[in-house]
Design goal:
The chain is an alpha/beta fold. The chain is built from 16 helices and 14 strands. The protein is globular and about 115 Å long. The modification N6-(pyridoxal phosphate)lysine is found at residue 284.
């Protein structure tokens, strides 16, 4: 309410009360002003009334919400369902223009401001999470795989002769298909087994670069967050190799923002060598609906080139979701979630080790992986080939989601590429195993229930194995008795 309207209100309601109400509104407006001036995530989270006031202020800046607006174009922000309009806070025009996802729309000042503020707030959070020297980022309404494709397509114009992408193996389909979709040939570098861990084979990477020729390689496509027993790539060493050979370096940091170790690897890689861009998921790091990612890097002009490669306008939903979430949490709330995740990782690790010991299995030693854990299923695998996959089914039907059971010898063909030992990141990992992860938002209750149900499933298998062994012993004894009688 402006001063003129406040003066009019004082003729209807006691002036002291109106001024008090104006002061209450002023408290909300001071928060909005700080956000607009600083472009940073507030330290303390906002209440929902402040966020809704802010979104309403943005929405009435878009032409589709102008009183008396007359639209005669093909895209005028018309929405027939009131429910849909409210779901999007009447921010209908999306973000960007036909030639640049980061460009300002003349008839959607509010949506454009939302886009700019979201990118600025997210950049602040990436710095807070550990990549202090990141120069630029933007939210793109695509998940991680397609966002990686956008990066590769941008590099195509810089390296027109290149046809290969060097890729240390990680058995996850979307990152592999991101290279195929961009029209490049993945060169798979098998991981080196060191103890229980699968680590980057740096000698194999450098040998392949020499064999193919640096000018024929689009980039090295490395990974931070991953399922154990694979661990984050040796980013520092890869970054140095890329710098030495003049090869771009794109990092798949899918759910790495929540891990200080993954973010430290990116920061150090950029410090000692070359990292051109790193891509992270919105839903996995900020607990919002699936459908968005952040593309970030250390060279602002290159990140702008990627944003300009996106064809057409884009949905504002991912930007809106993550902005609302970060304003609700504030930096203190997000840091608290990161701290809790790290504590739950330690708890899950210690408790899963106890359970493994009780069942004559072991927690694999994957200390370089800060998010995912793996427990061997060697006894289960040796007793029954189908038991490993059956365990996965049992856990799923008991409402345990996210746990992965990985049998030995699985073969999978993805876009005409055949992977032996698929899901295990290696052709022949020594044992079958089960994965569990401590991701952001996990609670102690989740860990306790998971361990209880896993323990019950493993006891069921042990009981069945003992019964089968007893039956076999009785059968052998009967056969021996018959031979003696004969």
């Amino acid at each position: 309410m402006n001063a003129e309207n406040q003066g009019c209100s004082e003729r209807l309601v006691t002036a002291a009360y109106v001024r008090q109400g104006a002061q209450g509104r002023r408290a909300h407006e001071l928060r909005l002003r700080a956000l607009l001036e600083q472009g940073k995530c507030p330290e303390d989270g906002w209440d929902e009334s402040t966020i809704e006031l802010f979104l309403h202020e943005l929405a009435i800046m878009d032409s589709n919400n102008f009183l008396g607006n007359c639209g005669v174009g093909e895209r005028e922000g018309r929405v027939v369902s009131g429910l849909v309009a409210r779901r999007h806070y009447r921010l209908i025009h999306g973000i960007g223009r036909s030639g640049d996802i980061s460009a300002v729309q003349p008839k959607a000042a509010g949506s454009s401001l939302l886009n700019k503020l979201t990118n600025s707030v997210v950049l602040d959070i990436i710095k807070l999470a550990g990549v202090r020297t990141v120069a630029s980022c933007f939210v793109v309404p695509m998940a991680t795989g397609m966002s990686l494709t956008l990066c590769f397509l941008t590099l195509r114009h810089k390296r027109p002769k290149a046809k290969y992408i060097i890729w240390p193996r990680i058995d996850q389909k979307s990152c592999f298909k991101s290279m195929i979709t961009a029209g490049f040939e993945p060169v798979v570098i098998e991981n080196a087994l060191e103890g229980d861990e699968l680590r980057t084979d740096l000698e194999a990477v450098e040998a392949k670069i020499k064999a193919l020729g640096a000018e024929n390689i689009l980039c090295v496509h490395s990974t931070t967050s991953c399922f154990a027993p694979r661990v984050p790539d040796r980013l520092e060493e890869l970054a140095v190799i890329c710098a030495n050979y003049g090869i771009p370096h794109i990092v798949n940091n899918a759910y790495g923002v929540q891990s200080s170790k993954c973010m430290h690897l990116i920061q150090q890689g950029a410090r000692v060598g070359r990292i051109d861009a790193f891509v992270q998921s919105l839903d996995k790091n900020f607990m919002v609906p699936v459908g968005g990612a952040i593309i970030a890097g250390f060279n602002e002009s290159f990140i702008q080139e990627i944003s300009k490669m996106y064809p057409g306008r884009a949905s504002a939903s991912p930007s809106l979701d993550v902005l609302i979430t970060l304003l609700s949490l504030g930096t203190s709330g997000y840091k608290k979630l990161l701290k809790e995740r790290k504590e739950m990782f330690s708890y899950l690790s210690s408790e899963l080790k106890k359970l493994a010991d009780n069942h004559n299995e072991r927690l694999l030693d994957t200390s370089h992986n800060p998010i995912s854990l793996a427990m061997s299923l060697k006894n289960l695998d040796e007793s029954n080939d189908a038991a490993v996959t059956q365990l996965g089914s049992m856990l799923f039907t008991r409402q345990v989601s996210g746990a992965r059971v990985v049998p030995r010898g699985s073969v999978q063909t993805v876009n005409n590429y055949t992977f032996k030992g698929f899901m295990s990141h290696a052709n022949d990992y020594p044992c079958a195993y089960l994965n569990a992860a401590s991701a952001i938002g996990i609670k102690k209750q989740d860990v306790d229930i998971f361990l209880k149900r896993l323990d019950k499933c493993l006891k069921t298998f042990r009981k069945e194995a003992n019964q089968e062994r007893s039956i076999n012993e009785i059968s052998d004894s009967n056969a021996a008795t018959e031979q003696l009688e004969n």
